[in-house]
Design brief:
The protein has 166 residues and is α/β, with parallel strands linked by helices. 44% of the residues lie in helices and 19% in strands. The chain has six helices and five strands. It is globular and about 45 Å long.
Length: 166
């Protein structure tokens, strides 16, 4: 669906010999699916998990629970921890994490539907908050995915600029 940005991401990862792992919640695997849609993805894609529940977060990520308890839910500092854990879990150059409320309802913590936080962990760390103001679950999932892929492409571009030899 996001073939041009995924092709750009794949090209940068292959050229630099870098890799990525994913931990996504409300996008339900769409970030991973899009990255895997590019031929040759096995050279850079380490793996991914849908961490939609607490049980799956515990099973698929080695999170520092003491540190997480100090963070507010669905915030950029929290998603940064998830991105870092995703990167470390599969020994990847980059980790991408997404946490959100796709809708039609918000979170128990008071976040409106259409809210997502996306984090990138790696040579450059970045995070954003996405608020669509929509209750449309499917549309939000696609918008969160697009935002994650765009942010990752931006991080990769920044990494190349700051590391000319990469």
């Amino acid at each position: 669906m996001f073939s041009s940005v995924c092709a750009a991401i794949a090209s940068k990862l292959v050229a630099s010999g870098q890799s990525v792992s994913i931990a996504e919640s409300s996008t339900g695997g769409l970030i991973a699916a899009n990255l895997l849609s590019v031929a040759g993805a096995s050279s850079y894609f380490r793996g991914g998990s849908v961490i939609y529940t607490r049980e799956s977060r515990h099973a698929f990520l080695d999170l520092d629970m003491t540190k997480l308890k100090e963070l507010k839910p669905l915030t950029e500092p929290m998603v940064a921890e998830f991105a870092h854990a995703a990167r470390l879990k599969l020994d990847a150059t980059w980790g991408i994490a997404e946490l959100g409320a796709a809708g039609p309802k918000g979170t128990p913590y008071g976040h409106a539907p259409g809210t997502s936080v996306i984090g990138i962990s790696g040579p450059i760390n970045m995070s954003i908050t996405v608020e669509t103001s929509s209750e449309n679950r499917e549309e939000n999932m696609f918008q969160f995915t697009e935002a994650a892929l765009t942010l990752f492409n931006t991080a990769l571009t920044g990494s190349f600029k700051s590391n000319p030899g990469a």
